[in-house]
Amino acid sequence: MTPHGCDPPSLSCRDLVDLVTDYLEGAMDPATAASFERHAHDCPPCLEHLEQMKLTVRAAGGVSDEAITPEARSALMERFRDWNAGRGG
Questions:
Q1: Cα(21)–Cα(66) distance, rounded to whole angstroms?
Q2: Which residues contact 48 (CB under 8 A, 6 or more apart)?
Q3: Per the confidence metrics, is the pTM higher than 0.90?
Q4: Separation of alpha carbons 28 and 8, rounded Å
């Protein structure tokens, strides 16, 4: 069992977080998508993360590139680089 009580899946929780964008964009092969869905179904924290990401995508979908100032874009990209570097990416 994982620390939060779900059975060990073929994908880890970290894998699910790393792959969530590919899943939401439909850019995942069927076998990986099935494993992703199985893990999300069996792991409440990962299912919650997936649902939060779906809401975020829906909310951000209404924001056009033109609506983001160059300063805001630069700040967002810097935050993403810092976050990604902290994850070893």
A1: 23
A2: none
A3: no
A4: 21
